[in-house]
Backbone:
């Protein structure tokens, strides 16, 4: 999607900081006693950087920049304004997914609406559709680019291997074959122009969204795999879905299978569930009453701490022994 703001600013000659170059020069010429605290700070920044003006130092007057951006937006057509609003809202939506993932939270389309980032000309469901279209398109373009790169690399290796196999077994012929393989690799390696043509065959995605993952349930949830593991996302998903019986069962099975060990009941009091003792007991009752999870059982250590486990992965004796170890015996050996 084109950035209408950038397109509209082409040819204007404006660069951030243009309006403050003269001001910065005056700051350097003024004596320290005549400067305001703000002017003194800017003068010190300029002196430290060796720059002669704010632009050279990479410092811009926010008011000047904001005023210029406002002027550019006023000159846009209605279509350009809408395109810019959509672009900015999408950037905010994708940033929100990553920020919330870093905080251990999933994101739903409703989160975007509640945060007020949906453009005025769109209803929330239309913006949600737009966001998912962008995610799908960006990930498809990224996958296509990777496929082309892998096929090109495989072709180079295949050609080199074919030449090497046809070589004679003598030392001289082997040496000649190696040289030939190197030449073949050089000949088949994409040149700068060929690389450009490969790139031109695939539309470069505007967004880098390979990390954005989707979970479908009562709602659609999104998270970033750069900031949240798939396993934690699954637990957060269960917490959001509100199926307490399934949450207890999935956690008990995962602990029993992965480590293997029984799951401490009190662990459900932690993030992302935050259950109290009553909720844990109610979930266990729901598991028993459903009759759908015959492999889930419970045991207690000698100090009264309760555990849940799956008999698909642990026997009753193993679960009991491990519960005693984790709750009591390991502390005795410290």
Residues:
């Amino acid at each position: 999607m084109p950035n209408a703001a950038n397109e509209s600013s082409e040819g204007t000659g404006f660069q951030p900081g243009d309006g403050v170059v003269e001001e910065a020069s005056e700051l350097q010429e003024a004596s320290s006693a005549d400067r305001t605290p703000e002017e003194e700070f800017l003068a010190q920044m300029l002196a430290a950087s060796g720059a002669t003006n704010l632009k050279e130092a990479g410092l811009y007057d926010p008011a000047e920049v904001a005023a210029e951006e406002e002027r550019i937006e006023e000159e846009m057509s209605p279509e350009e304004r809408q395109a810019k609003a959509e672009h900015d809202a999408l950037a905010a939506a994708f940033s929100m997914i990553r920020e919330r993932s870093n905080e251990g939270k999933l994101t739903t389309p409703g989160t975007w609406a509640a945060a007020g980032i949906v453009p005025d000309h769109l209803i929330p469901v239309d913006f949600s559709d737009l966001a998912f279209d962008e995610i799908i398109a960006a990930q498809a373009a990224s996958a296509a680019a990777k496929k082309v790169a892998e096929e090109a690399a495989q072709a180079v290796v295949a050609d080199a291997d074919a030449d090497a196999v046809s070589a004679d077994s003598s030392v001289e012929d082997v040496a000649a074959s190696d040289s030939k393989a190197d030449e073949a690799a050089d000949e088949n390696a994409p040149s700068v122009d060929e690389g450009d043509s490969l790139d031109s065959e695939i539309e470069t995605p505007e967004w880098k969204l390979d990390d954005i993952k989707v979970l479908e349930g009562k709602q659609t949830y999104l998270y970033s795999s750069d900031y949240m593991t798939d396993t934690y996302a699954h637990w957060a998903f269960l917490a959001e879905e509100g199926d307490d019986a399934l949450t207890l069962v999935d956690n008990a099975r995962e602990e029993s299978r992965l480590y293997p060990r029984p799951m401490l009941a009190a662990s459900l009091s932690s993030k992302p569930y935050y259950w109290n003792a009553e909720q844990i007991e109610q979930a266990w009752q729901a598991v028993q009453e459903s009759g759908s999870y015959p492999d889930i059982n419970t045991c207690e250590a000698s100090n009264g701490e309760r555990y849940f486990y799956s008999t698909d992965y642990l026997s009753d004796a193993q679960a009991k022994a491990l519960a005693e170890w984790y709750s009591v015996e390991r502390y005795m050996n410290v």
Observations:
- Residues 30 and 43 are 9 Å apart (CA to CA).
- Residues 82-227 form one domain.
- The two ends are 61 Å apart (CA to CA).
- The chain has a mean pLDDT of 82.
